## 1
Amino acid sequence: MKIITGSSHSAFAQSLQKHLGIESVAVDISTFSNGEKRVWIKDQLAGENVVFVQSFSHPTDENIMEFLLITDALERLGVRHVNAVIPWMGYSLQDKVFRTGEPIAAKVVADLVSNSYVKRVALLDLHNSSVPGFFSIPTQNLSANELFADYVKTNFGTESLVVASPDFGGLKRARKFADTLGVNLVNIDKHRNLATGEVSVNSMQGGSVEGKKVVVFDDSILSGNTVVEVSRLLKEKGASEVHILVTHGVFTDNALDSIQTDSIDSIVITNSISHESLPEKVTVVDASPLFAEVLNAWM
């Protein structure tokens, strides 16, 4: 087995390569003057099994197109199997139709991957657990639950700890995490205006956070508006510390500035998305071992 990566997240691929102990594939990716991507895989790979790492992060459309070009090139080289590792699946949040005339974008992307020369797909903490069903090839949705649980136990401890779900949609996910840690769970009543994206936080249910360390557990941060409003409410309710744990640090627009609020003590994300630089309060944990475990079972 060998590993190849597109241009979206070479660092993740390098970490995964170390865990798997396999060789990398040389690939040249450039752009024509008209904006089209050009891909050239230099190695001979006939009969090989290949792990292909590509995060569908910004620029999302470019990275998806690059994924399709590389898988086509792998097929033409006679690769036996392509196992796709997609740490962050762009468009996965568009998993349903809210208004007449909208597509189910997550299904469109799943079809593109399924119809390419890919045998299996490994994903991470999708917002909606039904999204793997959009793929027509074997797909695994991995969880960073244990990864974050180990981090919390090591850095915060579980005494005087409470887990919070930032909204009703994440309640099931947060409850599972609270059960893993053996601590109580509270839920925040949040409303988002679908037209403007504005977030309002109204109340909290499930018990007191007075004098407690609170871990807000979710799958992703985009604009940061939700975690900022939730953290303010928790501090108003008497929380001594508020730590945000999310798998995917998407950080759109001015999110990295927004999270620099005193109500947030720290943010912990995985390395599912590549970032050139992050604020000091943001810690990144490596999710590649989760994928290595699955890929070793596939080898």
## 2
Amino acid sequence: MIHLIVPLVAAFTPTLLYTLMLWWLDRYEKEPLHLLLVTFVWGAVPALVIAIFAELAVDDLAQYVFGPGAEATIVAPIVEEVLKALVLIALFVFVRREFNGVLDGIIYGALVGFGFAMSENILYFIAYSDQIVGVWLLRSVIFGFNHAFFTSIVGIALGLVRYEKRRWAGYVAVPLALWLAIMLHALHNSSAQIGFLSMLLAWVVNGGGILIVLATIVLSQRHELQWLNAELDEEVAIGVITLAQFERILSPTLRSRAELNTLLTRGWKDFRELRHFNHLLTELAFVKYQLHQGDRFCCVDDVLALRHQIQVMQPALEEHGRHTVLS
């Protein structure tokens, strides 16, 4: 039993830490938990299982055509990156309202990558249980962000074309992003077969890419803050929300402090109501932004419905304690 528990803990613990960090980075408009769960589970189970069978099915042919090592350097990068990207494309197409831009693309892309890496690592840790410390350091620490990084490239491309009116841009950007993810994945896998210097080069390249993604996250956060500021300023002017609520929504620190204070002083029910209210405010800002960008999936009725929900909740929030909720 211990031979199974150790690999599970070794794979799950860093994944949990990385996922929590990802959750923290999505500061203004958290993605729905059910979509995050679906994304993670797709990477952790179906994508990995399908990839294993697909790679086994074409292994002999690939080695015959391209030579030894083709499964790792050619087949695996193509199969795995395509399968991971599928869930991002599905989210983009079917729940587009929740795909607001580049930051959302990174969040979903990294999450499916973390799920895939976790399950893959479990298999490796079981197979190399006698070397688990070294394998863990290599796969979970040194290269722990690789799968998340590769798939986030496709997420960034989808985010960039989110409000693009020229449809052909998406048909160009997404395949190019997928090709880049496959190439970087192939570089990483081939470096593991060539030697230490090649592996170091792959680490430097991927590490640089991860830094670029982090910089992109910071820029995306600033853009989202600008959206909130611009779109909710009007709501203050017309009396839908108060100035205090406006200022709180612009500051994750103030919002978290108010929610925690409500939880400690008012209880779970009021805490959930406040969190839902804050979510409605950010949702209103993002829907208004989508409307102003000419998004065909958004309309004026959506804005009016969100305003109505916010106004309905206002009296209850005031009754719960103005000093706690609106300060």
## 3
Amino acid sequence: MKKTAVYARYSSDNQREESLQDQIGSCFVYAKANNLFIDPQHIYSDAATSGTLKERDGLNKLLQAARAHEFQVVLVDDLSRLSRMNAQMLIHIQELTFMGIELHSVADNLNTSDEESKLAYQLKGIINEAYIDDLRKKTIRGQLGQKLRGFFLGEKLTDSYPNRMET
């Protein structure tokens, strides 16, 4: 049995904290079916943290333990949990592979030790990055629309500033 670490992440305060447990549970099911042993000391997570950020506490701890060769496999529920930025995801995969550590993505059914998966995880990384770019544009468009309708966004409201502008 290969010693295995798990990494889970959800991106915003609007999401449920239970998402971490859902992701970790999915990884446990996968590990059992694939004869992998998840070491409870090597379950890492980042809550309410964007996948576009390079520096994340849980991810940094995972990579530090990987560099110390404390496990042979890393499980993620989905590649987007590792990173929403394709270049950064590929750097993480390259570093893990260089250290002889496999990365398995449960929902994507991808495994970096399988040469046939190389194109698939690269394409998935591009899709994940395109998704976050599209989401960013739609969020900004929605915020602009709200502002044009007279709502204040992110500004501190005081008695002199009602929560809706006079039109």
## 4
Amino acid sequence: MSEPASISSGIAARYATALFELAKETGALVALESDADALTAALSSSADFGTLISSPVITREDQARSIAAIAAKMGLSDLTAKTLQLMAAKRRLFVLPHVLSRLAAMIAEEKGEVTAEVTSATALSDEQANTLAATLKARVGKDVKLKTAVDESLIGGLVVKLGSTMIDTSVKAKLAALQNAMKEVG
């Protein structure tokens, strides 16, 4: 791991742990989970938000004002809003994506659930997602939260990553395996 990545990871871990512990002590884990999900969605859908948290050109004061307005508009909990304000004051907003992923992992562990990354050729219906979650729950013995993505290049099927296990049932993978088998023969 490179040194800057290690430093960022360490900073993110400290903020995530502090925020998680405070939320746990005050019984605000549900609100924290909701806030983390909302911030993750905002980061993935808004390039401007990503620029706000990572640009060295934006002053601390502008970051703090902007993040306060965003927190108020999103209806974030007081604990999350104050943490974001502190991060802005300390010029640490650039680690927010790492903080959010660390928080998601800590909350999932606290709830006894695991997250499965599912990539499919087309968007899964609610029924398909529920069936997949139930099947994975039966396999791992814990509640499974699905993080879905669409990749049309798969042609069909799914790629499921659950912890260190990856299950690839995509048509793309099957075609690649068939192509390799044909190369070995010829």
